[in-house]
């Protein structure tokens, strides 16, 4: 047995010292850290009241709304194991996930329930179905449970080496596999990447197009900003070039996390790029505070602001994977000038070389996170 440690207490409740600071932003509504911590406590108590025991699983098939973080962190504080799953799967996929995880409770967004309902018949382990964001005949709603639950919750006697949550693989090599993540893992990713590479701060506003059920989105929109006391912008719907650019314009995030296909879609859609454009579409970079948040893509892409590796056409060699494809100045070597590395081959392999040049810090990644200060 190691020393007592609970990820929720460490990463979320550290923000109770500034409980009025915004934690989540969605559709003009703000959820403060104080409100989120209270809702997480209620969620943990509600799940315990449904009979879920320590280390048993709670399947979360939920859209990106404040309910998902509340249930996710509340379950972990109670010593339960939340399992966020992809919201775009088939009924057969959900049947497999419910059985394989042996979840005792399913928390599902009302908009997703019709797809899951046929998979819930004759489940050998599932005991309760809780509906978020609406009501459904025969099922209790999350709002009802939270209203009845206590707002204080003592953390379960977990340690860093206890399982905190599961995430399922995509199933590209067969059936999806549940990967177990420990309580101590979250803090390490926040320390090593959120703080060490991104240097996220309390005054940052974060928007991740990748959803919370992805490991990428979970870190971007919850672990890293919560560890820093920053706020996260949530988008419940599937991200489109138009909806993403609209949020970039309205919320003005200082960090934007996206994927190559999304950047390509933004660039290809004139209706998305006419009104506003993100300041960068490749690499994870931190720029000076004076940088315009909505300057044209081509003018602020890191490939145009410093020497980088290019193809014979003068375009960034990562254009097919994670680049905006804007013209880049000729490079003298495959990795650009010494100490100034952008769009390097190592990024495609998932490594993150970080360099500092003046006021700009770059951490090249296989997917793109753009600081848009």
Give your account of this protein's structure.
- The protein is α/β, with parallel strands linked by helices and 373 residues long.
- It has two domains: 7-188, Rossmann fold, CATH 3.40.50.980; 239-371, no CATH class.
- The chain has helices spanning 7-12, 33-49, 67-77, 91-101, 113-116, 142-148, 183-195, 215-228, 241-251, 260-268, 270-273, 297-300, 302-305, 345-348, and strands spanning 22-26, 29-32, 57-61, 81-84, 105-109, 128-132, 140-141, 163-168, 178-182, 205-208, 231-233, 255-258, 284-286, 354-357, 360-363, 368-371.
- The protein has a six-stranded mixed β-sheet with strand order 2-1-11-10-12-16, sandwiched between helices. It has a five-stranded parallel β-sheet with strand order 4-3-5-6-7, with helices on both faces. A three-stranded antiparallel β-sheet has the order 13-15-14, with no helix packed on it.
- The termini are far apart.
- 48% of the residues are buried.
Considering the chains and any ligands shown, give keywords for the structure:
Rossmann fold, 5-stranded parallel beta sheet, 2 domains, alpha/beta
Give a summary of the structure in a few sentences.
With 373 residues, the protein is α/β, with parallel strands linked by helices. The protein is built from 14 helices and 16 strands.
Number of domains: 2
CATH class of the largest domain: Alpha Beta
The appropriate CATH architecture of the largest domain is 3-Layer(aba) Sandwich
User: What coarse outline follows from CA principal-axis ratios?
Assistant: globular
Strand content bin: 15-25%
Structural class: alpha/beta
Low-confidence stretches: 277-368
Report the major sheet.
Answer: 6 strands, mixed
Distance between the ends = 44 Å
Number of contiguous helices: 14
Query: What spatial order of strands do you see in the largest sheet?
Result: 2-1-11-10-12-16
The count of DSSP E runs of length 2 or more, i.e. the number of strands, is 16
CATH topology of the largest domain: Rossmann fold
Helix content: 25-40%
Pattern of helices and strands: HEEHEHEHEHEEHEEHEHEHEHHEHHHEEE
Mean pLDDT over the residues: 80
Radius of gyration: 21 Å
């Amino acid at each position: 047995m190691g020393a007592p440690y609970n990820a929720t207490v460490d990463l979320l409740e550290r923000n109770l010292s500034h409980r009025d600071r915004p934690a989540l932003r969605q559709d003009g509504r703000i959820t403060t850290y104080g409100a989120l911590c209270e809702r997480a406590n209620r969620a943990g108590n509600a799940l315990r009241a449904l009979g879920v025991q320590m280390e048993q699983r709670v399947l979360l098939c939920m859209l990106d709304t404040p309910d998902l973080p509340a249930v996710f962190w509340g379950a972990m504080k109670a010593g339960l194991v939340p399992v966020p799953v992809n919201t775009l799967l088939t009924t057969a996929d959900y049947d497999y996930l419910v059985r394989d995880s042996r979840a005792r409770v399913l928390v599902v967004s009302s908009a997703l329930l019709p797809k899951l309902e046929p998979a819930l018949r004759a489940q050998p382990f599932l005991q309760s179905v809780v509906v978020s964001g609406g009501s459904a005949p025969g099922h209790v709603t999350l709002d009802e449970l939270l209203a009845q639950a206590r707002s204080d919750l003592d953390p379960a006697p977990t340690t860093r080496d206890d399982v905190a949550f599961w995430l399922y693989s995509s199933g590209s090599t067969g059936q999806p596999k549940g990967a177990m993540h420990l309580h101590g893992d979250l803090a390490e990713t926040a320390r090593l990447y959120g703080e060490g590479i991104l240097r996220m701060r309390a005054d940052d506003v974060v928007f991740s197009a990748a959803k919370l059920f992805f490991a990428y989105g979970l870190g971007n929109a919850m672990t890293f900003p919560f560890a820093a006391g920053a706020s996260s912008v949530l988008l419940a719907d599937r991200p489109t070039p138009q909806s993403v650019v609209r949020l970039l314009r309205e919320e003005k995030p200082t960090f934007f996390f996206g994927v190559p296909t999304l950047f390509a879609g933004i660039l290809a859609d004139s209706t998305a790029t006419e009104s506003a454009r993100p300041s960068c579409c490749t690499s994870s970079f931190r720029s000076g505070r004076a940088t315009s948040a909505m300057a044209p893509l081509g003018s602020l892409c890191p490939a145009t602001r410093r020497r980088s590796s290019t193809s014979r056409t003068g375009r960034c060699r990562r254009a097919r994977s994670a680049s905006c494809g804007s013209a880049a100045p000729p490079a003298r070597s495959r990795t650009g000038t010494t100490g100034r590395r952008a769009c390097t081959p190592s990024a495609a392999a998932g490594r993150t070389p970080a360099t500092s040049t003046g006021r700009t810090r770059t951490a090249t990644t296989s997917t793109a996170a753009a600081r848009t200060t």
